[in-house]
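Researcher: Quick sanity check before group meeting.
Model: Go ahead. Protein one:
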Amino acid sequence: MRKQQWIYEIFAYLLALLFLFTAASKLFDLRHFVREINNQPFDDRFTPALVYGLPAIELIAVALLVWPKMRLKGFYLSAVLMFVFTVYVALVTFHFYNRVPCACATAFKHLSWPEHLAMNVVFLTLSITGIILHHKEHHIKIKQPYPIRAMV
């Protein structure tokens, strides 16, 4: 296995572990998660969609990332999720909202908002890099499907 393929695999499993951990932490303490979602600067009407939708989408991302034939879709879903999470955390970090909500709804409650932002940027970068590596590998395979042999 080539180095790029190893990196691709490692990034997929790191993202899958992240989403599995965050989804599980939400689902195992659902009451706490509901309270913390209600503490965020969103209209409470969005609570049911967020409480059930976020863990479900995160678990879908896990399945896509660990299933080799669906991995590219998993990287795309991861990139979208991480982009949305990163924008939200950036808005909180830079005091866009009137109040800064507690970060206790997250699986990483020990992180400050700036640390959370940095972590999100790292995982967003892993997602985008996974997409790039997939396309690079796919392009190479299409371009040269068989080894070229010199004719003697």
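Researcher: Fine. The other one?
Model: Protein two, sequence then structure:
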Amino acid sequence: MKRQFRILKHQEFDRIIHGGKALRTPHYSVYSEPHEGKARIGIAVSKKNGGAVTRVKIKRQIRAMIAAGFDLNTPVNLIIVVRPSYDTEAYSSESEELLSSLHSIKEPQN
């Protein structure tokens, strides 16, 4: 995912998490906020999910899920917080859950 599509600053994470809409699933918490232009996405993985290698693997998997099934032309800011129950080995089921939650967030704004 290119830098222009990522949310990197702590202040932006806080603003979206505290001021946006929230959707919680067993493995993710997804926060959204309307945005002018293209979608911007931030991914947060806590140390409860594992060591550095595991956390980076989870972020890579989520970026791949987004690239495969989410339209980055959608005008929304998203923060995806990965919960400790996330399983790196169950990629297909995790992907379905994430993409369905992203599409349900996207629907009311159209």
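Researcher: One line on it for the slide.
Model: The beta strands are 21-24, 28-34, 40-45, 76-82.
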